């Protein structure tokens, strides 16, 4: 699969709400996942840690609706935009999350995902 | 200025159509500008070459309307989305361009800009 193929499939899975499936299918074992925030979630390494972060996130938020735009491709990287209407369960606060993910592919797997916030 | 400040100002300038001003103000002398296409424009180095590329682009296209979204920030990088309704002057073809730029900042200047296409 080309980077474009992987990017297209990841976007299709995310549009279908299959975020977990996208990760399982394309994360490299040594994937590094980087958030633009301080704390434990700023940088996690390895597929298990990325999966755990996703599970934590899914448990901590209720997603009312979401849009997924892209992919935008250049070489071995691609960008996807995610917009979500969600409620943080702990605070009860409803908000719109607007972020982009920058994905780097090597040997058909995502070796880095880096998230940027509006 | 923080990376967030620079990103905010660049977006404000681009929303006002001041793309040239944004480049002059924030490109480092050694800026590298990377497009997701083959050919002479794939990678240009230096502020003079980046300016020349911008002038070529502006001369080759008529922009009917544009939207600029972002910035999305993480550390020393930020992402901006550009959507443009334009006509390629050479072909007369009217099209929608949807792309994102990934900017890397060092010492208050943009040292790399990398464009991704939908």
What does this structure look like?
The structure is a homodimer of 118-residue chains. Chain A is an alpha+beta fold. In chain A, 30% of the residues lie in helices and 50% in strands. The first copy, chain A, has 3 helices and 6 strands. A 6-stranded mixed beta sheet of chain A has the order 2-1-6-5-4-3. The longest helix of chain A has 14 residues, at 47-60. Chain A is globular. The termini of chain A are far apart.
Record the strand order, biggest sheet of chain A.
2-1-6-5-4-3
- Rg on CA atoms of chain A, Å: 14 Å
Oligomerization category of the chains in this entry: homodimer
Q: Kindly, what is the distance between the CA atoms of the first and last residues of chain A, rounded to a whole number of angstroms?
A: 31 Å
Number of helices of chain A: 3
Portion in strands of chain A: over 45%
Q: What's the average pLDDT of chain A?
A: 95
Q: Would you identify the regions of chain A where 5 or more consecutive residues have pLDDT less than 50?
A: none
Please give the most extensive interface between any two protein chains, plus how many residues each contributes. Answer: A-B, 23 and 23 residues
Order of helices and strands of chain A: HHEEHEEEE
User: How many strand elements of chain A?
Assistant: 6
Structural class of chain A: alpha+beta
Shape of chain A: globular
Which percent range fits the helix content of chain A? 25-40%
């Amino acid at each position: 699969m080309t980077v474009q193929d992987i990017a297209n499939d990841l976007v299709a899975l995310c549009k279908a709400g299959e975020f977990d499936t996208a990760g399982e299918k394309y994360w490299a074992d040594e994937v590094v996942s980087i958030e633009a925030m301080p704390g434990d979630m700023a940088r996690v390494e390895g597929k298990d840690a990325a999966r755990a972060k996703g599970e934590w996130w899914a448990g901590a938020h209720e997603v009312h609706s979401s849009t997924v735009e892209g992919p935008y491709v250049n070489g071995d990287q691609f960008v996807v935009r995610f917009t979500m209407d969600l409620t943080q369960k702990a605070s009860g606060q409803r908000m719109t999350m607007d972020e982009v993910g920058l994905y780097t592919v090597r040997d058909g797997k995502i070796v880095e995902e880096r998230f940027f916030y509006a």
